[in-house]
Amino acid sequence: MRFSNYKFFNLAFLSRTNIAIIQTGLLISILLLLVSSCTVTPLSQEKKSPEKKEITAHNRQYDVWRINGRISFVNEQENWYAKFNWIQQKDDFQISFTGPLGETELQISQIDKHILLKTPSGETSSDDLEQLLFQETGWKFPVTSLRYWSQGYPDPNIAAQVKYNEQQQISDIFQAGWHIQYPKRMEVAQTSGLNVVLPKKIIATEQNVKIKLIITSWHLGES
């Protein structure tokens, strides 16, 4: 009798235990479903991240562009500062340098390989741009190479060594005795709608000559 009561007690205990286990399992399952329903957000309700400007890699050179900015030319004899406007149309160009009052101090142009230099005292033409500049101003001013340096590239017609920064942009160019550095860059809009990163500050040094360009605006293409 005691044995059967004991057996009945065990069975009742086991039944209550099994029920408790089942109830606990159901409770855990319900909790898991509730948690998963709280953490999973339907795709249609996901928050969209703010739009980012599209920036394309600067991996090409431009033939048609215009830049505005400031320039300084320093050598052993003088320190010269001016504002400048540079228009490039493939191989043709015009660079105007203006003083603090807006007067044109110097203008260099090349159209159909005809080179013309204008100053307040007159005009001079030549077929050698750098030689003409040196002759008229005494400056060692590599305009031909600056066409490429201004975009952040070495002159493709002269052997060069380059260094890159962490963004894989050219940070230093060593070419024809010049050291060109790019301390600052800026985003520039293209007609395609993408932005491209181009130089904002350029420093070119050669022995005792230092040329610094601060570009305030870039305009790419015919516009």
Structural description of this entry:
- This protein is an alpha+beta fold and 223 residues long.
- The chain has two domains: 40 residues; 166 residues, outer membrane lipoprotein receptor (LolB), chain A (Clam), CATH 2.50.20.10.
- Helix content is 24%, strand content 43%.
- It has three helices and twelve strands; from the N terminus they run αβββββββααβββββ.
- Strands 1, 2, 3, 4, 5, 6, 7, 8, 9, 10, 11 and 12 form a twelve-stranded mixed β-sheet that branches.
- A hairpin with a 4-residue loop joins strand 2 and strand 3.
- It is globular.
- The N terminus is likely disordered.
Helix content: 10-25%
**Cα separation of the termini:** 108 Å
What's the level 1 CATH class of the largest domain? Mainly Beta
CATH architecture of the largest domain: Clam
Unreliably modeled segments: 1-17, 30-58
Helix-strand topology string: HEEEEEEEHHEEEEE
Could you provide a short overview of the structure?
By secondary structure, this protein is an alpha+beta fold. The chain is built from 3 helices and 12 strands. The protein has 2 domains: 2-41; 55-220, Lipoprotein localisation LolA/LolB/LppX (outer membrane lipoprotein receptor (LolB), chain A).
List the helices and strands and how they pair.
Blueprint: H1 2-39, E1 55-56, E2 64-74, E3 79-89, E4 92-98, E5 104-111, E6 114-119, E7 122-126, H2 129-137, H3 143-149, E8 160-164, E9 170-175, E10 178-189, E11 195-206, E12 209-220
Parallel strand pairs: 1-11
Antiparallel strand pairs: 2-3, 2-12, 3-4, 4-5, 5-6, 6-7, 8-9, 9-10, 10-11, 11-12
